[in-house]
């Protein structure tokens, strides 16, 4: 069975604010993520928490999707990460957890076929941008919750494998550079 995102998730825009040196809540930006959509860098920009910004604090299971720019990825927020507010470059999807598992939604949004559809929808101008109505109309295949969790677990293992592979390559480069430096002495 397929459902449109708007039928299984609340869709909001991230919060627009100017970072503030006296701010206390991390303000998520696209540059803090890897190409694969992994939060790789601790936020270096913060905003003040007030009545307006407080309503934009991410909730456990919220899925961020880049809505404009050159990079396209989705990321699932968990409370264990600490409080965050997403910048306005992101859509914030709040999935109905009775219907869809948040990490499954993230996985589906990150597969190449989905990215291709979004790039086609957002094309036609100088800056890639997805409209909220287009995102809402995007259809997601909904297998059983157990199957969704299985797919999400596989995606998480794949991401860990990529991270380990990247670390191995980095260590090999470091080792290679050290050997060459020793040989040149």
Topology:
Elements: E1 2-4, H1 5-8, E2 9-13, E3 25-28, E4 46-47, H2 51-54, E5 63-66, E6 74-76, E7 85-86, E8 90-95, H3 102-110, H4 112-122, H5 132-137, E9 139-141, H6 145-184
Helix pairs in contact: 3-6
Give a summary of the structure in a few sentences.
The chain has 185 residues and is of the alpha+beta class. It has helices at residues 5-8, 51-54, 102-110, 112-122, 132-137, 145-184, and strands at 2-4, 9-13, 25-28, 46-47, 63-66, 74-76, 85-86, 90-95, 139-141.
Side by side, the strands of the main sheet go 2-8-5-6
Radius of gyration (CA) equals 19 Å
Tally of individual domains: 1
> Which CATH architecture?
Alpha-Beta Complex
Number of helices: 6
Task: Return the average pLDDT rounded to an integer.
Answer: 91
For the termini, the CA-CA separation is 66 Å
Oligomeric assembly: single chain
**What is the CATH superfamily label?**
DNA methylase specificity domains
| Cα shape | globular
For the largest beta-sheet, the strand count, sense and barrel status come to: 4 strands, antiparallel
- Percentage of residues in DSSP E strands: 15-25%
The count of DSSP E runs of length 2 or more, i.e. the number of strands, is 9
Low-confidence stretches: none
Helix content: 40-55%
């Amino acid at each position: 069975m397929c459902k449109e995102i708007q039928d299984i998730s609340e869709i909001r825009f991230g919060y627009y604010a100017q970072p503030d040196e006296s701010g206390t809540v991390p303000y998520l930006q696209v540059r803090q993520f890897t190409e694969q959509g992994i939060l790789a860098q601790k936020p270096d920009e913060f905003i003040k928490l007030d009545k307006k910004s407080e309503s934009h604090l991410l909730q456990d299971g919220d899925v961020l999707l880049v809505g404009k720019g050159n990079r396209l990825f989705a990321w699932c927020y968990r409370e264990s990460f600490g409080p965050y507010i997403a910048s306005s470059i992101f859509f914030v999807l709040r999935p109905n957890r009775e219907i869809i598992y948040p990490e499954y939604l993230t996985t589906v949004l990150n597969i190449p076929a989905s990215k291709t559809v979004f790039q086609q929808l957002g094309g036609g101008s100088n800056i890639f941008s997805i409209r909220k109505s287009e995102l809402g109309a995007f259809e997601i295949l909904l297998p059983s919750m157990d199957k969704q969790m299985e797919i999400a677990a596989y995606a998480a293992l794949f991401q860990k494998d990529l991270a380990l592979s990247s670390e191995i390559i980095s260590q090999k480069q470091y080792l290679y550079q050290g050997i060459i430096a020793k040989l040149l002495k």
